[in-house]
Design brief:
The structure is a homodimer of 153-residue chains.
Chain A (H helix, E strand, L loop, with lengths): L10 H22 L6 H12 L5 H8 L3 H13 L3 E8 L2 E8 L1 H19 L7 H21 L5
Antiparallel strand pairs in A: 1-2
Helix pairs in contact in A: 3-4
Chain A binds a DNA duplex (30 and 30 nucleotides) through helix 4 and strand 2.
Chain lengths: 153, 153
DNA sequence: ATAATATTGTTGTAAATGCAACACATAAAA
DNA sequence: TTTTATGTGTTGCATTTACAACAATATTAT
């Protein structure tokens, strides 16, 4: 039929397949362990803690979700009492910033511990070296793709 | 704050970020070039051509979308006249199989040519060796994760 | 000063996705 | 034979997501 390389052999397509396994694993582990937060909420909290005084749009750019989506995730985190939002200024512009509440820190810590314990029970698939190489190459790919892809965030 | 490694540094999370760039690139290229099909429809056609006489559920397992989703993608491809579906048996069970129509092959070929030309204009981000290593490591990871993740397809 | 532009966040809406429930047919077990 | 389990596909629904439009404010240009 087609002598040329198939699209499904491409790096981009295989990246999508692999990411689906990773995402499914995350969702299933969070559900199985009865976490009070979703993977996305956990990731958002992780990024917020890593970047003190971050505003919503900066957070959106880091988690690669659009502003609407990011705002909604923060709404649920706020409703659950795990973050508090307040208005501040960045470059003389009004922005909404957020902090993790004590309750949020408690939940996050607990989730992290359970997660670590559970993940350690999963047999090692890649060597440390393979993992490092993989992460570095993906980072390089992301840096390059930033020039080509408009992310609209 | 947290001395331990952050979740956002993890392989799984970074895979998700990277896949988002890849997916956005694909969607944007398909839209920009005014293709009559989406990335998902194109991928599905590619897989169908690679696996002659494949049934819907087998296709679903390969593209990692659930049966409902896969059926809907095939509905739109059928409406557009790019595939034809027929009932057959597999292990004495009724299944729906599909073939690409002549019109479908024409569109696919045209899309492939335009795609190839367009992608060649994107500067090379990774070396061939990096790409091969990346694909191989991701494949190894997927094989390992298959044991851990229930995909419900 | 007024108008045009840009940044940040929210709301609305359509599309994509995942999952459970269902229908239907076959295989296996009682 | 009747019952139970399994495999395949569809429908319905709730969630997630992307994208456009909007509001509010600040910056820049005219």
């Amino acid at each position: 039929m087609y002598k040329t390389k198939h699209f499904t052999d491409s790096l981009f397509y295989q990246m999508e397949l692999t990411a689906k396994y990773c995402r499914s694993l995350g969702v299933q582990v969070f559900a199985k362990l009865n976490f009070p937060i979703t993977v996305d909420e956990y990731s958002a909290m992780d990024v917020i803690m890593l970047h003190d005084g971050i505003c919503q749009r900066e957070l959106a750019k880091l988690i690669l979700k659009d502003r609407a989506n990011t705002g909604r995730i923060l709404n649920t985190l706020e409703e659950k009492g795990y973050i508090e939002r307040f208005v501040d200024t960045k470059n003389k512009r009004l922005v909404r910033k957020m902090i993790i509440t004590d309750e949020g820190k408690k939940i996050f810590k607990k989730a992290s511990d359970i997660l670590k314990e559970h993940l350690s029970s999963i047999p090692k698939i890649l060597t440390d070296e393979e993992k490092e190489t993989l992460k570095n190459t993906m980072k390089k790919l992301r840096e390059g793709l930033k020039q080509e892809v408009e992310m609209k965030i």
